[in-house]
């Protein structure tokens, strides 16, 4: 998992970058197939902005979260809460999609299944009906 932290303004300190890097590493426990994370930290005219972009799952699905607060730590925490929810939702969606396949059949069920018989009865030819127009 690659993590890139980018500061777009000089007001963002190294300790803020380290804090964001440390916190974002915890996202992997919510969804194990994270390929890369980009974090953008900046200062706006009325507060700090934290934006996180995550590439996760097959095909690198993009998840984006953005938060603005007067405190950078609060902005980072809130945007990471958003990402946790998005990753949890994605994990449930992938899990649900995988579970919607056919049900597993045990070997004992196959062994106990009745054999097809050769008794006279309806045959394939008896079942087919022809329609004339």
How would you describe what is shown here?
The mean pLDDT is about 80. The chain has one domain (about 1-100): Double Stranded RNA Binding Domain (2-Layer Sandwich). The protein has a four-stranded mixed β-sheet with strand order 1-2-3-4, covered by helices on one side. It starts with a strand and ends in a 6-residue tail after the last helix. By secondary structure, it is an alpha+beta fold. β1 (about 1-5), α1 (about 15-25) and β2 (about 35-45) form a beta-alpha-beta unit. The protein has helices at about 15-25, 70-100, 105-110, 125, and strands at about 1-5, 35-45, 45-55, 60-70.
Short overview:
The protein is α+β, with helices and mostly antiparallel strands and 133 residues long.
Characteristic key phrases:
133 residues, alpha+beta, Double Stranded RNA Binding Domain, four-stranded mixed sheet, 4 helices, 36% helix
Q: Would you identify the regions where 5 or more consecutive residues have pLDDT less than 50? A: none
Beta percentage is 25-35%
> CATH top level?
Alpha Beta
Helix count equals 4
CATH fold title: Double Stranded RNA Binding Domain
Proportion of helical residues: 25-40%
Question: What is this structure's SSE topology?
Answer:
Blueprint: E1 2-7, H1 14-24, E2 34-44, E3 47-56, E4 61-69, H2 72-99, H3 107-111, H4 124-127
Helix pairs in contact: 1-2
């Amino acid at each position: 998992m690659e993590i890139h932290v980018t500061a777009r303004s000089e007001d963002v300190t190294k300790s803020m970058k380290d804090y964001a890097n440390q916190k974002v590493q915890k996202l992997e426990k919510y969804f194990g197939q994270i390929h890369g994370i980009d974090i953008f930290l900046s200062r706006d005219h009325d507060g700090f902005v934290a934006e996180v972009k995550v590439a996760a799952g097959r095909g690198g699905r993009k998840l984006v979260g953005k938060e603005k607060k007067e405190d950078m730590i609060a902005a980072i925490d809130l945007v990471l809460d958003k990402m946790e929810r998005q990753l949890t939702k994605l994990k449930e969606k992938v899990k649900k999609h995988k579970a919607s396949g056919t049900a597993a059949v045990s070997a004992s069920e196959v062994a106990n299944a009745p054999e097809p018989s050769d008794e006279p009865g309806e045959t394939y030819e008896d079942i087919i009906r022809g329609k004339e127009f």
